[in-house]
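Quick check before the chapter quiz. The format below is the same one you will see on the exam, so make sure you can read both the input and the output lines.
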Amino acid sequence: MKKILLITFVLVNFLSRAQQIETITIPNGIVYNYCNPKVIEKAKKLIIDNLSNTNGYKIVQDNLIIGPELWKRFKDKEKIQNIKQGKVEFHVDDLVLDGKMSNDINDSKIIWDEFKNEVAQDYKIRKANEEELKYYWSVISFDIDEPLLIIETKEHNYILNLLKKDLKLLWLDEAPKPGAVKQYQNGKEAESISKGVQETKLEKVVLLSSDEEINKNSSIDDINLIIDNTNQIFEELFKNSLKPGKIMVQFQLNKENNDILFAVKDLDLDIMKEFEKRINSEKYPNSKKDSIKLQLIFKVNSF
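Here is the expected output.
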């Protein structure tokens, strides 16, 4: 009898916790990962506290991306214009979308203050709907991980994507108005997004430095050399891999020693170790003076 009661208690407890997850409708082709409901509630409280507190900056970190839709308005704000570095170009196939990325905490605070001034007090926090997910998915180069929350006001709906591990704000954007949702595929706006083709290839190149910064500190030839050499190693190692996954390689070209970061989702880890070894042993060009950044996004046997 005790065993039966214990099993019943565990089952009821599990179902109770599972029911706490607020599920949403995920459009086809979009990878969306739920997190623990307690994390969502902590994220909501953090947002509320940082919007109401004059000195509330616990939510921001050195790096904060302003997505392309919000950047259309924010780029004309005087204080935002004082952030000289960090122009971002999102290369989505043949389409180039402008955005911004802060590189230090003070710039992130400026961005948050401008956002806070727009939101004021009359807002509500909710999860994203289908149209908002379609837009966000079309401009990012990674799977969607909660906490992803929408700040809904009378004038605008803002997209906030926080990092689950420390609840720092990664991405701040604006969802297009209802009926005017924009999503991108194959270098142009698309009415719907298909899963695409399951293949192994270099998917995207994301320049995290402006054209001016690249021209001053590097060259198009050097950037192309980095892309070509990295892609060649990738194709040699992963062309026959059956396990699906994705790789992000971020290069920070410095005057002396370059920094290379890797992010991996799934994949054959033995091949990935060899990939990292080969990339780290390559002699990539350095910057002339100031650091510049770019990311290469690869997909392996994936859509």
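If your answer matched, good. The CA atoms of residues 131 and 181 lie 6 Å apart.
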